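Rotation project, supervised by the postdoc (A.L.). Task for the rotation student: set up a whole-complex structure prediction and record inputs and outputs verbatim in this book. Inputs entered:
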Amino acid sequence: MILEVLSAGLVISACLAIFLDEAVYSIAALANTLVFVALLYVFSDALFVAIFQFAVGAGTLAILFLSGEMLSEKPAKKTPRKNVLGIIVAGALLSLPAIFLSIPGSTSAIGGATFEEALWNLRAVDVVLQGLVMMAVALGIAIVLHEKRKGVK
Amino acid sequence: MDYVILSLVLLAIGIYGLLTKRHLLKVFVSVELIAAAATLNFVMLASSLTKGLGETFLILAFSTDTCVSAVILALLVVVHRKYGTSDVGELVKREQSKEQEEAEE
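Outputs recorded:
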Protein backbone atom coordinates (compact mmCIF):
# COMPACT_ATOMS: atom_id res chain seq x y z
CA MET A 1 0.00 0.00 0.00
CA ILE A 2 2.76 2.42 0.94
CA LEU A 3 4.49 1.90 -2.42
CA GLU A 4 1.27 2.80 -4.25
CA VAL A 5 0.89 6.00 -2.21
CA LEU A 6 4.54 6.90 -2.88
CA SER A 7 4.20 6.33 -6.62
CA ALA A 8 1.01 8.42 -6.77
CA GLY A 9 2.80 11.20 -4.85
CA LEU A 10 5.74 10.91 -7.23
CA VAL A 11 3.63 11.39 -10.36
CA ILE A 12 1.56 14.21 -8.82
CA SER A 13 4.64 16.16 -7.72
CA ALA A 14 6.27 15.59 -11.14
CA CYS A 15 3.17 17.10 -12.78
CA LEU A 16 3.27 20.04 -10.36
CA ALA A 17 6.97 20.59 -11.12
CA ILE A 18 6.21 20.93 -14.82
CA PHE A 19 2.94 22.85 -14.75
CA LEU A 20 3.31 25.35 -11.88
CA ASP A 21 4.19 28.83 -13.16
CA GLU A 22 6.25 30.14 -10.24
CA ALA A 23 9.85 28.89 -10.45
CA VAL A 24 10.31 28.45 -6.69
CA TYR A 25 7.12 26.36 -6.30
CA SER A 26 8.15 24.32 -9.32
CA ILE A 27 11.54 23.58 -7.76
CA ALA A 28 9.86 22.70 -4.44
CA ALA A 29 7.70 20.19 -6.34
CA LEU A 30 10.85 18.78 -7.96
CA ALA A 31 12.35 18.40 -4.48
CA ASN A 32 9.23 16.43 -3.48
CA THR A 33 9.67 14.23 -6.55
CA LEU A 34 13.27 13.44 -5.66
CA VAL A 35 12.27 12.66 -2.04
CA PHE A 36 9.54 10.27 -3.26
CA VAL A 37 12.03 8.57 -5.60
CA ALA A 38 14.50 8.15 -2.73
CA LEU A 39 11.74 6.71 -0.49
CA LEU A 40 10.82 4.24 -3.24
CA TYR A 41 14.47 3.18 -3.30
CA VAL A 42 14.46 2.74 0.49
CA PHE A 43 11.36 0.53 0.37
CA SER A 44 12.84 -1.64 -2.36
CA ASP A 45 15.99 -2.39 -0.33
CA ALA A 46 18.30 -0.08 -2.27
CA LEU A 47 19.42 1.99 0.72
CA PHE A 48 22.81 2.90 -0.76
CA VAL A 49 21.18 4.41 -3.86
CA ALA A 50 18.65 6.27 -1.70
CA ILE A 51 21.45 7.90 0.31
CA PHE A 52 23.22 8.85 -2.92
CA GLN A 53 19.97 10.28 -4.31
CA PHE A 54 19.45 12.38 -1.16
CA ALA A 55 23.04 13.68 -1.28
CA VAL A 56 22.98 14.60 -4.98
CA GLY A 57 19.44 16.00 -4.72
CA ALA A 58 20.28 18.20 -1.75
CA GLY A 59 23.16 19.85 -3.63
CA THR A 60 21.24 20.30 -6.86
CA LEU A 61 18.15 21.69 -5.17
CA ALA A 62 20.07 24.21 -3.08
CA ILE A 63 21.64 25.66 -6.24
CA LEU A 64 18.31 25.48 -8.07
CA PHE A 65 16.45 27.39 -5.35
CA LEU A 66 19.08 30.13 -5.47
CA SER A 67 19.12 30.40 -9.26
CA GLY A 68 15.34 30.10 -9.45
CA GLU A 69 14.90 33.00 -7.06
CA MET A 70 17.60 35.15 -8.70
CA LEU A 71 17.14 34.50 -12.40
CA SER A 72 13.46 33.93 -13.02
CA GLU A 73 10.99 36.70 -13.67
CA LYS A 74 7.99 36.81 -11.35
CA PRO A 75 4.79 35.84 -13.21
CA ALA A 76 2.15 38.56 -13.50
CA LYS A 77 -0.47 36.51 -11.64
CA LYS A 78 -0.32 33.44 -9.44
CA THR A 79 -1.51 30.05 -10.65
CA PRO A 80 -5.20 29.82 -9.63
CA ARG A 81 -6.06 27.24 -6.96
CA LYS A 82 -8.47 25.57 -9.40
CA ASN A 83 -5.62 24.92 -11.83
CA VAL A 84 -3.45 23.45 -9.06
CA LEU A 85 -6.27 21.09 -8.09
CA GLY A 86 -6.67 20.13 -11.75
CA ILE A 87 -2.96 19.32 -11.99
CA ILE A 88 -3.16 17.18 -8.84
CA VAL A 89 -6.18 15.26 -10.19
CA ALA A 90 -4.43 14.76 -13.55
CA GLY A 91 -1.33 13.48 -11.74
CA ALA A 92 -3.42 11.07 -9.67
CA LEU A 93 -5.09 9.76 -12.83
CA LEU A 94 -1.70 9.37 -14.54
CA SER A 95 -0.41 7.30 -11.63
CA LEU A 96 -3.29 4.79 -11.89
CA PRO A 97 -1.79 2.70 -14.75
CA ALA A 98 1.40 2.14 -12.76
CA ILE A 99 -0.62 1.00 -9.74
CA PHE A 100 -3.22 -1.22 -11.41
CA LEU A 101 -1.59 -2.42 -14.65
CA SER A 102 1.43 -4.65 -15.02
CA ILE A 103 3.53 -5.88 -17.91
CA PRO A 104 3.24 -9.68 -18.16
CA GLY A 105 6.44 -11.54 -17.39
CA SER A 106 6.59 -13.47 -20.65
CA THR A 107 6.35 -10.63 -23.16
CA SER A 108 10.00 -10.73 -24.17
CA ALA A 109 11.33 -12.99 -26.87
CA ILE A 110 15.01 -12.26 -26.13
CA GLY A 111 16.51 -15.61 -25.21
CA GLY A 112 13.33 -16.68 -23.39
CA ALA A 113 13.98 -14.12 -20.64
CA THR A 114 11.24 -12.11 -18.94
CA PHE A 115 10.78 -8.44 -19.79
CA GLU A 116 12.65 -7.32 -16.68
CA GLU A 117 15.52 -9.73 -17.29
CA ALA A 118 15.77 -8.65 -20.93
CA LEU A 119 15.97 -5.00 -19.92
CA TRP A 120 18.57 -5.84 -17.31
CA ASN A 121 20.61 -7.84 -19.83
CA LEU A 122 20.69 -4.79 -22.12
CA ARG A 123 22.14 -2.55 -19.39
CA ALA A 124 25.38 -2.15 -21.37
CA VAL A 125 23.43 0.05 -23.81
CA ASP A 126 22.62 2.41 -20.93
CA VAL A 127 26.25 2.63 -19.88
CA VAL A 128 27.38 3.32 -23.46
CA LEU A 129 24.70 6.02 -23.86
CA GLN A 130 25.79 7.71 -20.64
CA GLY A 131 29.37 7.65 -21.87
CA LEU A 132 28.19 9.32 -25.08
CA VAL A 133 26.35 12.01 -23.09
CA MET A 134 29.48 12.76 -21.07
CA MET A 135 31.56 12.91 -24.26
CA ALA A 136 29.03 15.27 -25.87
CA VAL A 137 29.11 17.54 -22.81
CA ALA A 138 32.94 17.58 -22.83
CA LEU A 139 33.02 18.30 -26.58
CA GLY A 140 30.44 21.08 -26.18
CA ILE A 141 32.46 22.75 -23.43
CA ALA A 142 35.64 22.43 -25.50
CA ILE A 143 33.95 24.03 -28.54
CA VAL A 144 32.50 26.88 -26.45
CA LEU A 145 35.91 27.58 -24.89
CA HIS A 146 37.60 27.43 -28.32
CA GLU A 147 35.09 29.89 -29.82
CA LYS A 148 35.51 32.20 -26.84
CA ARG A 149 39.31 32.15 -27.22
CA LYS A 150 38.93 32.90 -30.94
CA GLY A 151 36.69 35.84 -30.07
CA VAL A 152 39.26 37.21 -27.60
CA LYS A 153 42.05 37.05 -30.23
CA MET B 1 2.46 -2.21 -8.99
CA ASP B 2 4.73 -1.99 -12.03
CA TYR B 3 7.83 0.19 -11.90
CA VAL B 4 8.42 0.04 -15.65
CA ILE B 5 5.04 1.74 -16.23
CA LEU B 6 5.75 4.22 -13.42
CA SER B 7 9.06 5.22 -14.96
CA LEU B 8 7.42 5.43 -18.40
CA VAL B 9 4.82 7.84 -16.99
CA LEU B 10 7.59 9.92 -15.39
CA LEU B 11 9.53 9.88 -18.68
CA ALA B 12 6.43 11.00 -20.60
CA ILE B 13 5.88 13.94 -18.20
CA GLY B 14 9.55 14.94 -18.57
CA ILE B 15 9.48 14.76 -22.38
CA TYR B 16 6.22 16.75 -22.46
CA GLY B 17 7.85 19.46 -20.33
CA LEU B 18 10.96 19.45 -22.51
CA LEU B 19 8.89 19.94 -25.66
CA THR B 20 6.38 22.50 -24.43
CA LYS B 21 8.04 24.68 -21.78
CA ARG B 22 10.19 27.59 -22.92
CA HIS B 23 11.76 28.76 -19.69
CA LEU B 24 15.27 27.32 -19.24
CA LEU B 25 14.59 26.45 -15.59
CA LYS B 26 11.58 24.37 -16.64
CA VAL B 27 13.74 22.67 -19.26
CA PHE B 28 16.16 21.83 -16.46
CA VAL B 29 13.34 20.43 -14.30
CA SER B 30 12.21 18.29 -17.27
CA VAL B 31 15.73 16.93 -17.74
CA GLU B 32 15.87 16.08 -14.02
CA LEU B 33 12.56 14.21 -14.31
CA ILE B 34 13.80 12.22 -17.31
CA ALA B 35 16.99 11.32 -15.42
CA ALA B 36 14.92 10.31 -12.36
CA ALA B 37 12.75 8.08 -14.56
CA ALA B 38 15.80 6.35 -16.04
CA THR B 39 17.47 5.76 -12.68
CA LEU B 40 14.20 4.59 -11.10
CA ASN B 41 13.80 1.97 -13.82
CA PHE B 42 17.40 0.88 -13.43
CA VAL B 43 17.31 0.55 -9.64
CA MET B 44 13.96 -1.22 -9.54
CA LEU B 45 15.00 -3.76 -12.17
CA ALA B 46 18.27 -4.39 -10.38
CA SER B 47 16.60 -4.75 -7.00
CA SER B 48 13.79 -7.01 -8.29
CA LEU B 49 16.39 -9.29 -9.89
CA THR B 50 18.42 -9.13 -6.64
CA LYS B 51 21.56 -7.87 -8.32
CA GLY B 52 23.65 -5.43 -6.31
CA LEU B 53 25.54 -4.50 -9.45
CA GLY B 54 22.69 -2.14 -10.38
CA GLU B 55 23.40 0.04 -7.38
CA THR B 56 27.04 0.43 -8.39
CA PHE B 57 26.02 1.36 -11.94
CA LEU B 58 23.91 4.11 -10.41
CA ILE B 59 27.05 5.99 -9.35
CA LEU B 60 27.83 6.46 -13.05
CA ALA B 61 24.25 7.54 -13.72
CA PHE B 62 24.26 10.07 -10.89
CA SER B 63 27.62 11.52 -11.91
CA THR B 64 26.42 11.94 -15.51
CA ASP B 65 23.23 13.53 -14.24
CA THR B 66 25.17 15.95 -12.05
CA CYS B 67 27.48 16.89 -14.97
CA VAL B 68 24.47 17.64 -17.17
CA SER B 69 22.80 19.65 -14.37
CA ALA B 70 25.97 21.72 -13.84
CA VAL B 71 26.25 22.51 -17.56
CA ILE B 72 22.58 23.48 -17.85
CA LEU B 73 22.79 25.72 -14.77
CA ALA B 74 25.97 27.37 -16.11
CA LEU B 75 24.22 27.99 -19.43
CA LEU B 76 21.21 29.43 -17.59
CA VAL B 77 23.37 31.90 -15.69
CA VAL B 78 25.40 32.90 -18.78
CA VAL B 79 22.29 33.36 -20.94
CA HIS B 80 20.52 35.40 -18.26
CA ARG B 81 23.56 37.64 -17.80
CA LYS B 82 24.01 38.19 -21.53
CA TYR B 83 20.40 38.57 -22.65
CA GLY B 84 18.50 39.37 -19.46
CA THR B 85 15.92 36.63 -20.08
CA SER B 86 15.65 32.86 -19.74
CA ASP B 87 12.90 32.34 -22.28
CA VAL B 88 14.14 30.18 -25.17
CA GLY B 89 11.63 31.64 -27.64
CA GLU B 90 12.66 35.18 -26.74
CA LEU B 91 16.33 34.28 -27.21
CA VAL B 92 15.67 32.84 -30.68
CA LYS B 93 13.71 35.96 -31.64
CA ARG B 94 16.54 38.24 -30.50
CA GLU B 95 19.16 36.23 -32.37
CA GLN B 96 17.05 36.27 -35.53
CA SER B 97 16.50 40.03 -35.37
CA LYS B 98 20.23 40.52 -34.74
CA GLU B 99 21.08 38.42 -37.81
CA GLN B 100 18.56 40.40 -39.87
CA GLU B 101 20.12 43.69 -38.79
CA GLU B 102 23.59 42.41 -39.70
CA ALA B 103 22.35 41.23 -43.11
CA GLU B 104 20.76 44.64 -43.80
CA GLU B 105 24.03 46.41 -42.96
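Student's summary: Chain A touches chain B through 57 residues (CB under 8 Å).
Supervisor addendum: Residues 123-152 of chain A form the longest helix (30 residues).
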